[in-house]
């Protein structure tokens, strides 16, 4: 597995090595040790999610309060999506920046995003199926969203007419979310990551 840091700090692209023969193929789509080495601490697994979306569906941009936030490891097991990571951490050098990675059932890449980062995707095919490994369980009172079509973010969604949920269509813009105090602080996210690293080191010791 090859890990490549994205332009948004705290996000990584994972590309597995696939082993195929006439019977089919085999690959490691998640490696605890490789990811931990790159990120600086393990991804604690608390919940697994699966979503199925029709073509042109856009989901996001979703994020959770930090601490504890919700780190995610996302891959596409059927079809294809443009997976998008957005830096929503106020005070971050890359605040407001986004990067997209194509996830599909050909290259079978995955994306890891740390606590405090926003996540969304656009389905490029019908029945696009994503699986998520999450560091914390779902807590609706701590979950938030930023409007995926916000002009300030300027995300180039590959959909002629993006299909949004009612929740995402009603989400605030980046500026509105910041003014309302909903966005995580970069320093808080950094300190929380340090506590995760410290906890992992004490467990190893």
What does this structure look like?
By secondary structure, the protein is of the alpha+beta class. Helices cover 18% and strands 35% of the residues. The chain has four helices and 13 strands. The chain has helices spanning 32-39, 166-169, 174-179, 186-204, and strands at 2-5, 11-15, 19-21, 24-26, 47-53, 58-64, 72-78, 80-87, 98-104, 110-113, 117-123, 128-134, 143-145. It has a six-stranded antiparallel sheet, with helices on one face. The longest helix is centred in the C-terminal third of the chain and has 19 residues, at 186-204. The radius of gyration is 17 Å and the shape is globular. The two termini are 27 Å apart. The mean pLDDT is 96.
What's this entry about, in short?
This protein has 205 residues and is of the alpha+beta class. It has four helices and 13 strands. Belongs to the dTDP-4-dehydrorhamnose 3,5-epimerase family.
Topology:
Elements: E1 2-5, E2 11-15, E3 19-21, E4 24-26, H1 32-39, E5 47-53, E6 58-64, E7 72-78, E8 80-87, E9 98-104, E10 110-113, E11 117-123, E12 128-134, E13 143-145, H2 166-169, H3 174-179, H4 186-204
Antiparallel strand pairs: 1-2, 2-10, 3-4, 5-12, 6-11, 6-13, 7-10, 7-12, 8-9, 8-11
